[in-house]
Amino acid sequence: MSDTNDTPGIVVTGTSGRMGQMLVRLILASDRARLVGAVERPGHAWIGRDLGEAMGGAPVGVTVTDDALAAFARAQAVIDFTAPAATVEFAALAAQARAVHVIGTTGLEAEHLAKIKAASRHAVIVRAGNMSLGVNLLTRITRQVAQALDADWDIEIVEAHHRMKVDAPSGTALMLGEAAAEGRGIALADHRDSGRDGITGARERGDIGFSAIRGGDVVGEHDVIFAADGERIVLRHIATDRAIFARGALRAALWGQDQKPGEYDMIDVLGL
Ligand SMILES: NC(=O)c1ccc[n+]([C@@H]2O[C@H](COP(=O)([O-])OP(=O)(O)OC[C@H]3O[C@@H](n4cnc5c(N)ncnc54)[C@H](O)[C@@H]3O)[C@@H](O)[C@H]2O)c1
Ligand SMILES: O=C(O)C1=N[C@H](C(=O)O)CCC1
């Protein structure tokens, strides 16, 4: 790590997590950004340790801390893949530090989103339930297909993730659902059908259905199914490596350096 060059300094929150460690490796290997901080939750075993050593390698000169504001004050960007309550707190602190906040956390509900929106009045926030190029392109294709088809075509979104995932539908599934709803000219909130179980009755015409599979080490798989009488269209994205999300997040952190305060998504970053 060098403190002397002028590439943006980045803090990773949730550094010990699946995405946190992926991001740390990517940033340490990058010549476009510097790792200047690592944040974990209070009480975590890595607090006070050198991050590189905690990850089982050589020291990197960054000590893991639970003092997020002090870490953010030294950074130009914060990359955050943690949990909803933590992300809301980090949004306020990143805004205070005027650092770009890249949010990958999913499972955010209306109350969280309202607080993130408020923080974006003071700083750049880039938020997406999926930071990969492939999924963001798929949202565009989904919108286009939904626009071309009427409600004789039932839309179903099926997703699969690893056994440790805590939220459903996935952030990606919701992005795809929003894209389908937009294409069809309806509000997803009025047509969302998730969690079928028992005697559900026949499918409601025009609804967008969600199903979630959880198991093993699946990184992330999403099908958008358009099912009509006699034919079916299936649009599919398969993630095999979390590096796709980390690359997108780093790209967002760099892109955000030149933007005005506000809330953005990966469609903005990628120019899709
Ligand atoms: N947007 C995307 O492209 C994308 C991709 C992958 C994962 N995700 C999302 O990112 C989130 C994290 O996923 P993961 O698989 O890395 O989970 P994980 O459980 O492996 O990691 C989460 C980390 O956050 C830390 N954390 C929790 N509360 C904290 C706090 N208050 N302060 C600091 N650290 C805290 C945990 O200790 C843990 O290390 C999930 O919401 C997941 O859905 C999004
Ligand atoms: O592993 C996860 O958790 C993932 N979360 C995002 C989602 O909810 O869609 C992106 C894919 C991986």
Automatic annotation (TrEMBL):
Pathway: Amino-acid biosynthesis; L-lysine biosynthesis via DAP pathway; (S)-tetrahydrodipicolinate from L-aspartate: step 4/4. CDD domains: DHDPR_N. The active site is at 161 (proton donor/acceptor), 165 (proton donor). (S)-2,3,4,5-tetrahydrodipicolinate binds at residues 162, 171-172. The keyword Nucleotide-binding does not apply. NAD(+) binds at residues 14-19, 40, 104-106, 128-131. Coiled coil: none annotated. Its EC number is 1.17.1.8. This is 4-hydroxy-tetrahydrodipicolinate reductase. The gene is dapB.
